[in-house]
Amino acid sequence: TPVTAMADGYAMASGGLGVVCVHVACGLGNAMGMLYNAYRAGTPLLIFAGQQDRRLRLGEPVVEGDTVSVARPWTKW
Predict the structure, then answer these.
(1) Please, which residues bridge with residue 19 across strands?
(2) I want to staple 65 with a disulfide (CB 3.0 to 4.6 A). Which of 7, 25, 38, 50 is the partner?
(3) Which residue in 19, 61, 65 sits closest to 43, CA to CA?
(4) What are the residue boundaries of the structural domains of the chain, listed by start?
(5) Quick one: which of 43, 32, 46 has its CA closest to 74?
(6) CA angle at residue 70 from 52 to 49, to 5 degrees?
(7) What is the pLDDT tens value at each position of the chain, 77 positions in all?
(8) Under a CB-based contact definition with an 8 Å cutoff, are residues 16 and 46 in contact?
(9) What is the CATH number of domain 2-69?
(10) Would you say 28 and 22 are in contact if contact means Cβ atoms under 8 Å apart?
(11) What is the model's pTM?
(12) What does the alpha-carbon distance between residue 37 and residue 8 come to, in Å, rounded to a whole number?
């Protein structure tokens, strides 16, 4: 996602930590390319994924998944 790329660029330019918040499933899925780039570059990046209102969890569309397994190959923790 563009915000993940911006956080990666910020971290590279500033020498600090890039921080980004994405939606829990589809947002993390869209961010995986940039997360991989940050991982390969050794960029310090904190990415966290948030869920929508819990009352909407069982409705359509399906917007949740096993995000830990998705992100595990390209994350440190």
Answers:
(1) 46
(2) 25
(3) 19
(4) 2-69
(5) 32
(6) 30
(7) 799 999 999 999 999 999 999 988 788 889 999 999 999 999 999 998 887 666 766 666 666 678 888 889 988 87
(8) no
(9) 3.40.50.970
(10) yes
(11) 0.78
(12) 8
